[in-house]
Design goal:
The chain is of the alpha+beta class. It contains twelve helices and 14 strands. The radius of gyration is 27 Å and the shape is elongated. The strands form five sheets. Strands 6-7-8-9 form a four-stranded antiparallel sheet. A three-stranded antiparallel sheet has the order 3-4-5, with no helix packed on it. It has four domains: about 55 residues, no CATH class; about 60 residues, no CATH class; about 130 residues, no CATH class; about 100 residues, Intergrase catalytic core (hpI Integrase, Chain A), CATH 1.10.443. Helices cover about 30% and strands about 15% of the residues.
Length: about 375
């Protein structure tokens, strides 16, 4: 691994209770391979920050980060606290409380919800809770204004506005405003985001007709639609399809010949690919060398393979996921995509794997760590969507 350094190759990881130190020179067993050249000859190098340790390949000089700073919402997570914002409706990682609350300011005991961004203090203290200033004031709705606050029509956890100033030409802008006002009053869509995305599509179409001397609705021809399709054909099939649907509904509201302007063949065919499963050869190889993988990671692989759950569900599975019912044991976890709890019977082997991981968590991270698995790299929910 190279000559000894002045400073030991120790990385520091912030956890719920204390800092976890990993001595790579003592604990590293030489099993890594450079993803670029497949060499296993590395040297530890440190950045200015004490926890930013990297491996440097001595063959191709590739740098491989060993750690990533952990966000406050991870190591200051408060599972017993619920978000007081009535507009926040997401469930915390433990699957029991509302919101994802963490201690944002230890000195002043101010808490923050990771999902909706509100700040608050515990009940009994001043300022029960406060949202960011941009969320407090709702601009009254006036049709003639070019800035509409959609919170006049929807309950939005974040500020959502439509700015008509950039929609041109001016006669077209008035038609767009009339159509969106109709959608808002009739509550055609259940969310402000849907109306906002329609405004984006209509603005994009306006940019095309702005390039030609189009003075009225009757001047809109199919050529403009074909130009629109050509410009946005590089986007995903689903995105282009949604844009064309938005345009067709808009044309129908304007009482134009929408079916002729946008024809069925203009809609892209949507191809649904098969999931990229690990093949049998890869799974067999992983099982063969499972003992060479760090034990906590190997146990996580075993649990995920057994449950066939999504990575985010296993990353956020609770410490007490084992439940007993009438003498039978089950593993219980929350499915983020469908927002519900799921329970599977477990074999003796899987139960033993879970109990070993529970013991490792308690010995490593203490009694209060709420998850079955931990990660030295940042784990974000959107990483698995």
């Amino acid at each position: 691994m190279g000559q000894k350094r002045k400073y030991p190759a120790i990385s520091i990881h912030t956890t719920l209770n204390e800092n976890l130190e990993v001595n790579w020179e003592r604990e590293y067993d030489g099993s890594f391979q450079c993803p670029e050249c497949k060499s296993n000859q590395f040297r530890f190098e440190r950045q200015k920050s004490g926890c930013r340790l990297k491996l440097r390949c001595l063959n191709c000089s590739l740098y491989i980060p060993l750690t990533k700073p952990t966000g406050q919402h991870i190591f200051r997570y408060q599972p017993e606290l619920a978000c007081p914002n009535p507009l926040c409706n997401k469930i915390s990682p433990n699957g029991q409380t509302k919101g994802w609350v963490y201690l944002h300011d230890p000195k002043n005991q101010r808490y923050k919800c990771y999902y909706c961004g509100v700040f608050f203090k515990k009940l009994g203290q001043n300022s029960a809770w406060s949202a960011p200033s941009s969320e407090k004031l709702i601009k009254p709705f006036k049709y003639e204004d070019n800035l509409w606050d959609l919170r006049n029509y929807y309950q939005c956890s974040h500020n959502q506005t439509i700015n008509f100033s950039s929609i041109k030409p001016s006669w077209y802008r008035e038609q767009v405003k009339g159509y969106l006002h109709f959608l808002l009053k009739a509550q055609v869509y259940s969310s402000a985001m849907s109306v906002y995305m329609i405004s984006v599509t209509l603005k994009q179409f306006g940019e095309i007709i702005q390039q030609k001397p189009v003075l009225s609705l009757t001047d809109i021809t199919r050529n403009f639609v074909l130009a629109f399709v050509d410009i946005y054909s590089q986007q995903s099939a689903s995105s282009l399809k949604d844009k064309l649907i938005h345009l067709r509904y808009f044309f129908e509201w304007l009482e134009l010949d929408a079916r002729n302007l946008i024809r069925s063949r203009d809609f892209p065919k949507r191809r649904v690919g098969n999931p990229d499963w690990l093949d049998e050869k890869v799974r067999t190889t992983i099982k063969k060398y499972l003992s060479k993988i760090p034990a906590p990671i190997a146990r996580q692989y075993q649990i995920q393979e057994y449950t066939a759950a999504r990575p985010i569900d296993i990353c956020q599975i609770s410490f007490d996921c084992l439940v007993e019912d009438n003498g039978k044991w089950y593993i219980r976890f929350y499915q983020q995509k469908v927002q519900r709890w799921h329970q599977l019977p477990v074999t003796r082997n899987i139960r033993s794997v879970i109990e070993e991981q529970q013991q490792w968590i308690r010995q490593t991270l203490g009694e209060n760590y709420p998850y079955l698995f931990c990660h030295f790299r940042g784990i974000h929910k959107w990483s698995y969507l």
